[in-house]
Specification:
This protein has two helices and two strands, in the order ββαα. By secondary structure, it is mainly alpha-helical. Strand 1 and strand 2 form a beta hairpin. The longest helix has 29 residues. It is elongated, with a radius of gyration of 17 Å.
């Protein structure tokens, strides 16, 4: 059995009435100034994605632990 990992990143403009900062797991709001900075965008992407990756890893390994051992005893 093989497994595919998918990652999807979207950039969308939002209104000025929304505060900058973490908006929820996997979401962060940047000012227009920060959105024009490669370093700021990269840091925001890493920060926003980290918690989501940990949650998905946890779900994956929980599901794997419930499966029967594979042909190699894994």
């Amino acid at each position: 059995m093989k497994y595919r990992i998918k990652v999807k990143v979207e950039f969308e403009e939002c209104g000025d009435d929304i505060d900058c900062g973490v908006e929820g797991p996997g979401q962060i709001v940047l000012s227009e100034e920060d959105a024009c900075s490669i370093d700021e965008v990269e840091a925001a992407l890493m920060s926003a994605s980290y918690e989501v990756m940990r949650q998905e890893n946890s779900r994956h390994f929980e599901a794997m632990s419930k499966k029967k051992p594979g042909p190699r005893g894994e």
